[in-house]
Amino acid sequence: MTSESAAAAPQATVHGYPRQGQNRELKKAIEGYWKGRVTAEALRATAGELRRANWRQLADAGIHEVPTGDFSYYDHVLDTTVMVGAIPERHRAAVGADALDGCFAMARGTQDVAPLEMTKWFDTNYHYLVPELGPDTAFTADSAKQTAELREALALGLAARPVLVGPVTYLLLAKPAPGVADGFEPLSLLDRLLPVYAEVLADLRAAGAAWVQLDEPALAADRTPAELDAAARAYRVLGEAADRPKLLVASYFDRLGEALPVLAKAPVEGLALDFTGRAAANLDALAAAGGLPGKRLVAGVVDGRNIWINDLEKSLTTLGTLLGLADRVDVAPSCSLLHVPLDTSAERSIDPQLLRWLAFARQKTAETVTLARALAHGTDAIAAELAANRADLASRASSPLTRDPAVRARAAAVTEADARRSAPYAERAAAQRAALGLPLLPTTTIGSFPQTTALRTARADLRAGRIGTAAYEERVEAEIRDVLAFQEEAGLDVLVHGEPERNDMVQYFAEQLTGYLATDHGWVQSYGTRYVRPPILAGDISRPEPMTVRWTQYAQSLTDRPVKGMLTGPVTMLAWSFVRDDQPLGDTARQVALALRDEVADLEAGGAAVIQVDEPALRETLPLRAADRPVYLAWATEAFRLATSGVAAATQIHTHMCYAEFGDIVGAIDDLDADVISLEAARSHMQVARELAAHGYPREAGPGVYDIHSPRVPGVEEAAALLRAGLDAIPAERLWVNPDCGLKTRDWPETRASLENLVAAARTVRAGLPGRGA
Fold first, then answer.
1. Which of 76, 497, 656, 709 does the annotation list as catalytic?
2. What pLDDT digit, counting tens, does each position of 124-135 carry?
3. Neighbours of 453 (CB within 10 A)
4. 570: closest CA among 549, 595, 553, 605?
5. Overall pTM surpassing 0.85 (yes/no)
């Protein structure tokens, strides 16, 4: 193993960069390709232009070593599945015919072939495609994408470092393929996978790679001794390979703990570690382990997941300590900048002074370069930057935006009784059945319906001043009428107004609450071509006036069937925002919960008999380490109950969660004390229904039977089969029928057909229940 020179000057690098482009050019090109308006050649050209623009921008900013391989048309874990040849049999024909179409078939499915399951990337709001593996999986190396992008960067005269998902994390993220017998562990395939990684590494070395980064964030979670042994074996095998570049093993999102000495002893040339947030504990752990003699350390001291400016002096203190723990210390963000927007300079709606508190990807790049310059040349070299940084930090700390005495007094006065329903569930269930009069297996949707071109045009016209508020609201009312009419015609039992007035399930509320800032161009990838603009939770939160009551009441006036009031829950309001880092998350969650409690009360007073408060991020925000989870789950579940517990027994409280590993939090789901929960289940083949049953979950549940993240229209029998599988775990009197998630991203034709099939499936299964006839 070759060590780095102790005299090597510290340099700046990043682990990854936003893919979409300044104006979401990649999203537009991909969706144009799906609709036949953009050719494959034009899509590839757009992607190439974006990659090269990113690399040039990074190099011009002072980044010494740009990342390659992090760019993806859909998902980097899916790209890894292609790289190692672990393509499910049902997708092989599509992949063999065309690489692009094969990638999209695995991601989105086709009418005839189901996609891969999708879930959250650790505790972020990014979604990855879950690898499907089995005892018969045969891995084969396909490094074409990785080597091509490396050569592309090298041709620009840049120093480049390919970034790959590491083999241990890849296997730990995988699931047994459908039909594989219980007890199979994907990690058992490690010895079969390592030669494929070795072949890819050799290909990258031949293509000109001096270093390759292998990302192992799974090692920042709790790991068993067997899993740690697997990590040690993996990097012993790869480190001892003769034909390879230098290896930089990266981990982030939390402290490495027991995995740190494993990686420190591995025969690799460097480690990239996170030193922000909970991962700050890596500093003391690294010192206790004796540092990294003879190795390179890439120090993640700039938070890659939040948007607040870096405290440069604090980071320099950390870096100064690290200089004595490795032969070479370079500076980086804590993780890929995929998780933050691109550039604050595009923002026009945020006060310029407040904008100075914020750092998006380009600003984080500049912070990283500044810190590396100080490390190399001393703090005098960045005296002006340090002075400006101190002033900006002080401005934020003293701003009246951050503290509202009335909000803080109300939150401090909350009692335990405020977060408990007035009646036990059995009493509530009886009151709700009497009030609602629903059939067995009641049908509903999650909330949103497709947002039509006419609606989006009206919203753009309102922003541009081409139409007034009255004309816009007429358009919204027309959309609500259409959505209600369709639901009644289709035969759904509990209706929704379709949320046409909402731009996003978090942003819509953030724009009406105090303490939030909204961006114009702060787009972040959630999955595939789905980008969101997370609002910025900068100060104390309150609700000046009702936010949703008018639209729910209008919808209810159009029908005799119950219409759900629809809100986003406090944990999701935090998780899908860039949240303040100057007070405990639980304190912020309580403030949001109290604002939502006011809205729930107004909805109930306005006639809503069913109110849904969505918490899809409850599992997503779960800390990676078990030791940190009880505190989180305590304040998270209390915040939900605080928002929802002020209603009468007959008012039915729903919640919704999607695309996460629910088995880890079934107890917390129970603690929410919601009357009905709807969950994603179609891609995971009703796994969550079985998990609820194993826990003894006592309330009503709707495991989804329609995967809304795919353009496929599930047939009646397909939905009925999923529903019957749900009935194997949940009794009919407690089972609801619904899609996996909201329908905002779908087109009307597929939505119409899918929901009609969903209702037909419910009727078919309902008719076959004991005592119901054939």
1. 709
2. 989 999 999 999
3. 8
4. 595
5. yes
